[in-house]
Specification:
The structure is a single chain. The protein is mostly helical. The protein has 2 domains: 136 residues, Helicase, Ruva Protein, domain 3, CATH 1.10.8; 107 residues, Lysozyme (Orthogonal Bundle), CATH 1.10.530.10. 57% of the residues lie in helices and 3% in strands. The strands form 2 sheets. Strands 1-4 form a two-stranded antiparallel sheet. The chain has a two-stranded antiparallel sheet with strand order 2-3. Helix 6 packs across helix 14, helix 7 runs parallel beside helix 12 and helix 9 runs antiparallel to helix 10. It is globular and about 55 Å long. Its EC number is 4.2.2.-.
Length: 270
């Protein structure tokens, strides 16, 4: 199976977009809804300079301050759990059981991904199960509103601004709309890509000419591409202390998450 990396408008342009620091002329961040509309007006100028087009700018204008996103960002308790409790709360036993069955049902698909990207099925399946319960729940928050709220919020503005720009570019390209729903931090699709990463690492796996992160094939191929581009070494171990464990860290910064993925992946593959 051949997969095509989605590189619109250009890989170089996207890399520059994601690497560029926020423009100095952007409006000040804020910690409540009070300054959001003024921030959006200033951010629209920054977005234009970064190549966001008419549809993306319209989506920005329609964005609303996402109070549920802010509440979720301040209350990420599960990442503070012990590994044992984290795995129990996140349903690791079920993910492993269902993951083995999924791999057995579609070995050709996962085999093709591993052949192209070097990432074993267990890792992709574990991430898929952990993030959305294999697509069972992909979020109920408007992506553009969520990610622009986080870009405005002072807590991690610099981190989220490139992803807000990425989301607006995805709207320009028709990959998402202003109404597309995702997780509370603006992640989208089966494996919950942040928009800037979706723009950069998206893959059209089913050959329909577009990248759809709500398509399982596209989402899993894109996840494999992300890991490979972040330094995944084919045939090398991914448990804690092994070379590819560092690449799992690129997917999620929480150590308890990283350890859980490595353990579940090994059990799915084993």
């Amino acid at each position: 199976m051949a997969f095509r990396i989605f590189a619109a408008p250009s890989t170089v342009a996207v890399a520059l977009l994601l690497a560029a620091p926020p423009q100095a002329s952007a409006a000040s961040c804020g910690n409540n809804a009070g300054g959001f509309e003024a921030w959006k007006a200033a951010f629209a100028t920054q977005a234009k300079r970064n190549g966001v087009g008419k549809r993306g700018l319209q989506a920005l204008a329609q964005a609303r301050y996402a109070t549920r996103t802010i509440a979720a960002d301040r209350n990420q308790k599960s990442f503070k759990y012990s590994l044992e409790k984290f795995m129990k709360v996140r349903g690791a036993t079920t993910i492993i059981s269902q993951g083995r069955a999924r791999k057995a049902r579609n070995p050709g698909f996962y085999g093709a991904l591993e052949q192209q990207y070097g990432v074993p099925a267990g890792v992709l399946i574990a991430i898929h199960g952990m993030e959305t319960g294999f697509g069972g729940f992909m979020g109920d928050s408007a992506i553009v509103s969520a990610i622009t709220t986080l870009a405005y919020d002072c807590r991690r503005s610099d981190f989220f601004i490139p992803h807000a720009l990425g989301a607006l570019k995805l709207v320009d390209q028709g990959a998402i709309t202003p109404a597309t729903k995702g997780a509370k931090h603006g992640e989208l699709g089966h494996t919950q890509f942040l928009p800037g990463n979706a723009l950069k690492y998206g893959v059209d796996a089913n050959g329909d000419g577009r990248v759809d992160f709500y398509s399982q094939a596209d989402a899993l191929a894109s996840t494999a591409n992300f890991l490979r581009q972040k330094g995944w070494k084919p045939g090398v171990g991914y448990q804690e202390g092994q070379p590819n464990f560092a690449v799992i860290k690129q997917w999620n910064a929480a150590s308890v998450y990283q350890k859980a993925i490595a353990i579940m992946a090994a059990r799915i593959d084993g």
